[in-house]
Write a structure and sequence with these properties.
- By secondary structure, this protein is mainly β.
- The protein folds into 2 domains: 113 residues, Chitinase A, domain 3, CATH 3.10.50.40; 111 residues, Chitinase A, domain 3.
- 13% of the residues lie in helices and 33% in strands.
- It has 3 helices and 14 strands.
- The strands form 2 sheets. Strands 1, 2, 3, 4, 5, 6 and 7 form a 7-stranded antiparallel sheet that branches. Strands 8, 9, 10, 11, 12, 13 and 14 form a 7-stranded antiparallel sheet that branches.
- It is elongated.
């Protein structure tokens, strides 16, 4: 009797396994085909994912791949570093899993495409392997400004200086080297040079920077560390910016001015 029961349970388990779908479409329009299920835990926001992938147009032409990289790509999950469709697709993968993901334009490169690589409004397909899931670095949070003085400029920009710095102020046309983190008003991180990206170098130019950034940097010295609270009219206004910044958003940046390149 016991053997019969064990066989019956095994057959039942097998039947459930056969019922597991290996192809489905999500509510967002992402098409998923699972070729290898993988094992272990699902990734969590802040984990580092090691991924191998290849991207094609639907006609079979390849436009991107990690094949030539010495190691899988490393991505900080949940920070918006991946295309929306890729992030949705890997969110329910496990270590060792493989999937084919077909992304509609709104989950891929959108109406703008990727200049020189992917045309506008393009459907794309990725074959993705989740090689490894590693614990990520500690979460990046806004600098603690409790009890510190807030100075409001004539434009409406709010400034909190942690370290004033030394030397000259940069001028329009100078190139500066900066590390920073950007947050929405609710504390959501939307952009950062920490922990893995190098500081960024760019030209101080009113056409390239939002007004709040330009004003803040022109009144900083090298070595300075400051928090700026940027109202929408000094940031991205009613349009917002891509997926990261919603319309009419107040933005908070923690900035370090590392160098002025003469």
């Amino acid at each position: 009797m016991r053997n019969v029961l064990i066989i019956a349970l095994a057959l039942l388990a097998a039947s459930f396994g056969c019922d597991r779908p290996d192809k489905w479409t999500t509510d967002s329009g992402l098409q998923i085909t699972e070729t290898v299920e993988g094992e272990g835990e699902l990734p969590e926001k802040g984990d580092i994912l090691k991924l191998r992938y290849t991207g094609w147009y639907l006609d079979g032409e390849k436009f991107d791949s990690t094949d030539k990289l010495p190691e899988p790509a490393r991505v900080l999950f949940g920070r918006g570093d991946l295309l929306p469709g890729l992030e949705e697709g890997v969110a329910t993968m496990r270590k060792g899993g493989k999937r084919i993901l077909v992304l509609p334009p709104e989950l891929a490169f959108g109406k703008e495409g990727r200049p020189g690589v992917v045309p506008p409004d393009q459907w794309v397909k990725f074959e993705v392997e989740l090689v490894e899931i590693e614990p990520g670095p500690p979460p990046i949070v806004p600098w603690n400004d409790a009890g510190m003085e807030i100075v409001t400029s004539n434009s409406g920009l709010q400034i909190i200086d942690f370290t004033v710095g030394e030397g000259d102020y940069p001028k329009v046309g100078d190139t500066v080297v900066v590390s920073y983190s950007g947050f929405l008003a609710d504390g959501t991180l939307f952009d950062t040079t920490y922990p893995n990206r190098a500081p960024v170098e760019f030209l101080l130019d009113a056409e390239r920077l939002i007004p709040g950034w330009l004003e803040a940097l022109l009144t900083m010295r090298v070595g300075g560390q400051r928090k700026i609270i940027v109202p929408p009219f000094l940031a991205y206004g009613a349009k917002g910016y891509g997926r990261a910044v919603p319309p009419n958003a107040t933005l908070i940046y923690d900035i370090e001015l590392l160098e002025i390149v003469k």
